Amino acid sequence: MSKRDYYEVLGVSRDTADRDIKKAYRRMAMKYHPDRNPGDAESEDKFKEVNEAYEVLSDAQKKAAYDQYGHAGVEQGAGGHGGFDGGFSDIFGDVFGDIFGGGGGGRRRSSVQRGADLRYNLDLSLEDAVRGVEKSIRVPTLVGCEPCHGSGAKPGTSAKVCGTCGGNGQVRMQQGFFSVQQTCPTCRGEGKVISEPCSSCRGQGRVEQVKTLSVKIPPGVDTGDRIRLSGEGEAGSHGGPAGDLYVQVNVRQHPIFERDGRDLYCEIPISFVDAALGGELEVPTLNGRVKLRVPAETQTGKLFRLRGKGVTPVRGGPVGDLLVRVVLETPVSLTSRQKELLKEFQQETEGGKQKHSPKKHSFFDSVKQFFEDMT
Q: What are the percentages of helix, strand and coil residues in the chain, rounded to 5?
């Protein structure tokens, strides 16, 4: 999906003054801040979009590049892979961190930051979810650059103290009677600058890579369960610790079984003869077939419980059951002889309707009484 124009995001025009851009950003950021919209994913996305726009339009060099080349001119600097607090935590703290209790203020933010957490959606069959399985997954992420060991500087060189702020990460500007402290525009609050960036990571200290990981899925997991792989998220910046990877489980629909917690359900078709006379049915389970004895005169919808044939809960506890519902199947494609036999059976049972069809008799008695009460 293409990004919206940054000026449109903040609701300003291209000739708007810097102070008015800042006012617009503050107004929009306060409107969509997660603290004011708890649990609202749409507001969180807008909040990230607003901060990404301001990160570019508040920086003179990035703004000039954006005005000339659009998003392509700043794609390395804006947004990125830094997660929720990635590229704009310094802006948030400077502009209104004191309102929500954020850090920021006049302190230099540390350049060492923890990597972002990642989520991987893993689809499993019901069999794998119940029994447990080991899966190999491929995760696109950011890893530490090997040539520069994550420093961002060309091998053999190192970052130097910023000459603009003297390593403080902040500069003080005089505006009339007021002295305002702002993030250093040269080092962006890090206190250091890289004069010779690493050619492999272009000074970022991290590179994109697809990692192959092995994930052990414990028996009994269900849709919505998460498995945490510590340290398998994005690499931290400037030597910071890596984030975590959360594997989100989704169990696919099964053609035979339905799951409800630790119990499984299935429906088994049963013939008219087996239902009336009784019989033995073969019932599928996740561990093979078992025999089910159906008593005579079984009605359609009857539920049978096979204990211990369900799911072992992932958090412990007794094994669930398999509940089998028998459904009477009406015979089709009857031959002439079969139809004759059914007609004979009908004639044989007509004299004892109440005896042979107690539910039907009881139902129509209730209907008759209902209409009598109405009159």
A: 30, 25, 45
